[in-house]
């Protein structure tokens, strides 16, 4: 029979065995993950907001898009209509950017965004002269959730992010990608995009824009369209 003092003496040993078991379980779990799935915490010397602390906003909740059957249609004022698979998008040159998403409701977060530039897709499609507006059709708003000026996209080399902080874009955040509309309010950062339409319809208004939000959407500028 162990007295109380004997039990106390064994305590550290038992603790050590338990800790070692826990540590080895963790090491095993992390090595079985691919290194690409390790979330970045810093980029260009800036601390990134961890994905778990980033907010999220969606009119119809999370859209679940299947990578195998997914196709991005690029149409409208183009020479060649495109239908790009998820792996087609992955095989384009991937560009990384540090950018802050500012929701018009007042919250924001900073992340590392990685994916192909829209210009690389436009180059394949051959944009016809006169195309001035790019409309983003999404799984939750097939009529066009939002739009951006063609010149803004080209001048700022806007990318579509397939990775967020080096992690594959999560479903609730826009898988297969989110448009990184730097300098614009969050409602311009389309998620779950299924179609990109080149247009000359400068009167087009997306979901929030149609509800009165500013179509220009420059961060720091007015939230609502002036009457
Ligand atoms: N398809 C789609 N894209 C969307 C939305 C949406 O409801 N549907 N919400 C927008 C709004 S208002 C914001 S603030 C951002 C939020 O993006 P996040 O998930 O990266 O935080 O997504 C934007 N993109
Ligand atoms: Mo937003």
List keywords for this structure.
alpha+beta; Sulfite Oxidase, Chain A, domain 2; single chain; 13 strands; binds the ligand Nc1nc2c(c(=O)[nH]1)N[C@H]1C(S)=C(S)[C@@H](COP(=O)(O)O)O[C@H]1N2; 227 residues; four-stranded antiparallel beta sheet; binds molybdenum atom; five-stranded mixed beta sheet; disordered N terminus
Structure commentary:
Mean pLDDT is about 90; it is low at about 1-5 and about 10-35. A five-stranded mixed β-sheet has the order 4-3-13-7-8. The chain has a four-stranded antiparallel β-sheet with strand order 5-6-10-11, with no helix packed on it. It has a single domain (about 5-210), classed as Oxidoreductase, molybdopterin-binding domain (Sulfite Oxidase, Chain A, domain 2, Alpha-Beta Complex). The termini are far apart. It is of the alpha+beta class and about 230 residues long. A hairpin with a 2-residue loop joins strand 1 and strand 2. About 20% of the residues lie in helices and about 25% in strands. Molybdenum atom (MO) binds near residues 103, 105, 186 and 187.
């Amino acid at each position: 029979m162990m007295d109380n003092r004997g039990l106390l003496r064994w305590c550290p040993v038992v603790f050590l065995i338990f800790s070692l078991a826990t540590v080895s379980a963790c090491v095993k779990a992390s090595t079985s993950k691919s290194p690409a799935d390790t979330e970045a915490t810093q980029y260009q010397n800036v601390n990134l907001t961890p994905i778990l602390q980033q907010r999220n906003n969606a009119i119809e909740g999370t859209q679940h898009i299947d990578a195998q059957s997914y196709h991005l249609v690029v149409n409208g004022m183009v020479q060649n209509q495109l239908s790009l698979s998820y792996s087609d998008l992955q095989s384009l040159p991937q560009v990384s950017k540090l950018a802050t998403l500012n929701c018009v409701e007042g919250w924001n977060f900073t992340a590392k965004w990685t994916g192909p530039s829209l210009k690389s897709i436009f180059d394949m499609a051959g944009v016809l002269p006169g195309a001035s507006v790019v409309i983003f059709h999404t799984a939750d708003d097939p009529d066009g959730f939002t739009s951006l000026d063609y010149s803004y996209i080209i001048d700022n080399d806007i990318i579509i992010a397939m990775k967020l902080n080096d992690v594959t874009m999560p479903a609730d955040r826009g898988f297969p990608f989110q448009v990184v509309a730097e300098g614009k309010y969050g409602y311009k950062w389309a998620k779950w995009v299924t179609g990109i339409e080149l247009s000359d319809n400068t009167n087009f208004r997306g979901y929030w824009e149609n509800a009165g939000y500013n179509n220009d959407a420059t961060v720091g500028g007015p939230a609502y369209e002036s009457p």
